[in-house]
From TrEMBL:
The keyword Zinc-finger does not apply. The lineage of its organism: Bacteria, Pseudomonadati, Pseudomonadota, Gammaproteobacteria, Oceanospirillales. Residues 7-280 form the Extradiol ring-cleavage dioxygenase class III enzyme subunit B domain. Gene3D superfamilies: LigB-like. This is 3,4-dihydroxyphenylacetate 2,3-dioxygenase.
Amino acid sequence: MGEIVLAAKITHVPTMLLSEQPGKLQGCRQQAIDGQREIMRRAREAGADTVIVLDTHWLVNAGYHINSNARFKGCFTSHEFPHFIQNLEYDYRGNPALGDAIAAKATEKGVFTLSHQVETLDLEYGTLVPMHFMEPGDMPIVSIAAWCTVHSLEASRKLGEAITEAVKESDCKVLLLASGSLSHKIWENDLYEANNGTFTISREFNRQVDLRVLELWQNGEIDTFLKMLPEYAQYCCGEGGMHDTAMLFGALGWDKYTGKGELIGEYFPSSGTGQANVIFPID
């Protein structure tokens, strides 16, 4: 029987890639990079052999979608930030059977979900950036769209439940990653340079709410957080509508989850947004 052995909410900011290159930003995101490597270290220690990524950079406008190709190989340049992410080569295994099973379980719950094995369906950088640093090696990955424009958080919660059910019926030991920011109000273009935008948050309100959310997670007050999740996503411009987060907690049991989040490294602002790597342990 399979299981989720570790779960985490993680950052995927493009400046992580610039942080490892020569130049004025070299080293600027080292703590975030180290945090993701630590998450993978713990996942391997817990026996993880598969990675599922809930990707808030994969936008979908109808239904839910899973990229469950048998192999992912390519060279990625971001349309959003071509000056940040260029020619990022990748080559990973996939797990079509697990992707298909998740889609079937979700559809049974009334959440229409398609699993795709289409060679030209590429990965988005919400998956590619963390995988670049976590280095899954031979571990297959499954990427699930989590930038959901016309979807309810309740449906995304059910998709999270479907993930857990499908994993349990498999032989996979899964590291589950919700790849997305906390608050996500990117600096207005005209204000970016004047406010040192790469390293600052665009709204103090958002920072304060982010810090409170981290406090709730670390204190194990998940039920309280879930009650505020819809407004948090709305008023603090949660990335992808925070559907990755709804899926994550749906997979963990929603308000029945009794674990406490562990902040790995530091909370940090980036281009106006709030970012963190947080582990949610599995009992």
